[in-house]
C-alpha cells in the first residue's frame, strides 16, 4: 500500500480525511496503537500528530488549520491527485 495518514485531533482529522479522499488511502488516530505502519510506503502526519509513528516520513503542518489545509492540498496536487 502506498499511503496512510495520521492525525491526533478532530481538526487534523478533517484535513486528513480530505487528503485520504484524494490519495485513496486510510487515516488513523496516531494516539491508538497500530503495528502495521511498515506496510505503507509513505506515512503522513497531519498537524500536531502527537505520538506519530517512527515510520512517519512526511509531516504536513502549518501555523494554523488553514495553513495546514493549504499545505495538505498542495502536497496532493504535487502528486497529481
TrEMBL record:
<protein>
    <submittedName>
        <fullName>Uncharacterized protein</fullName>
    </submittedName>
</protein>
Amino acid at each position: 500500500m502506498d499511503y496512510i495518514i495520521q492525525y491526533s485531533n478532530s481538526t487534523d482529522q478533517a484535513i486528513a480525511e480530505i487528503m485520504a479522499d484524494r490519495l485513496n488511502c486510510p487515516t488513523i488516530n496516531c494516539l491508538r496503537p497500530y503495528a502495521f505502519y511498515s506496510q505503507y510506503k509513505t506515512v503522513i502526519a497531519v498537524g500536531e500528530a502527537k505520538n506519530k509513528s517512527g515510520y512517519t516520513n512526511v509531516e504536513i503542518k502549518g501555523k494554523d488549520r488553514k495553513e495546514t489545509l493549504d499545505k495538505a492540498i498542495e502536497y496532493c496536487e504535487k502528486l497529481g491527485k
